Amino acid sequence: MKQIKQKLNSQCGASLMITLIFFLVCVMIASVTLTAASASVGRTVQQRKEQQAYLSVSSAAQLLQSSFQSAGMSVTAERVALTHQCNRNLSQHTEKPASDWQDTTQVTEGDDMAWLRGYLRSDALSLSKTPDAATPTHTFTIKPDNADMLAVQVKMTMEKDYKLIFDLAAVDPNQAGKTLTAYTMEVAFTGTATEESASANDTTATCQYITTETVIDDTGSFTEVEKTVTTPLLRTTTTRTISWQAGVITKGAIS
Ligand SMILES: [Zn+2]
């Protein structure tokens, strides 16, 4: 009985209980702190990725802008049309079809923007040939200058009025083939098309037709004489120059 009383009054159990509760509180605080810390680390990683994406995308946009400014982006296409000057109606001569647009852009050696110019040339030519065709697009990647930057995926579209639109998004370093959508940019360049025409008699193509002429011979009688008339065709060369000036950077989402 005395032993039981001692047990009931004993402070040992209570102090163990207090120690246990104190320990439990400590574990709880530690776990809350750890969760907050790891969330904060996660946020920092995400923020760093977004910052990288922003810097990479904006430097790629500036690169595109400056490339167009320094390299003077323009392409030329030429079309030749042959027209008759014989004043005969269509059924009396063989109509030569007008030639289609041909790329006549001057190519300079060692042009490091030749790849981009190649896209401009083929797109501008196809739009000149068939203005109602679907707008041509290309997708390419701008590689980063240093390890801190991300690769940037660029989608290039040439619209019917030769307006160029580049949609930029950073490539996700952790997911191949995916882009980071937090920071995307658009660079747009207005295309200006000018045309010049020059006409001259063609030296190689002629129109020939046979006509009859009434002549008075020595005896004073009228006779019909067949005569071949040759007229040169008129060659008209039209040169179309499409150029792109300073681009405008706008922030926008890629759809
Ligand atoms: Zn003719």
Q: Could you tell me the radius of gyration in angstroms?
A: 39 Å
Order of helices and strands: HHEEHEEEEEEE
- Helical segment tally? 3
Helix content: 25-40%
| Main sheet summary | 5 strands, antiparallel
Beta-strand content estimate: 35-45%
Strand order of the largest sheet: 3-4-5-6-9
Mean pLDDT: 85
Ligands in the structure? zinc ion
Termini distance?
A: 84 Å
Can you count the beta strands? 9
Inertia-based shape: rod-shaped
Which secondary-structure class do the elements indicate? alpha+beta
Q: Unreliable runs, pLDDT <50, ≥5 residues?
A: none
Description:
A hairpin with a 5-residue loop joins strand 7 (191-216) and strand 8. The chain is built from three helices and nine strands, in the order H-H-E-E-H-E-E-E-E-E-E-E. A five-stranded antiparallel beta sheet has the order 3-4-5-6-9. It is an alpha+beta fold. The protein has a domain at 44-74 and 91-195 and 235-251. It starts with a helix and ends with a strand. The radius of gyration is 39 Å and the shape is rod-shaped. The model has no long low-confidence stretch (mean pLDDT 85). Residues 84, 86, 88, 93, 207 line the site of zinc ion (ZN). Zinc ion binds next to loops.
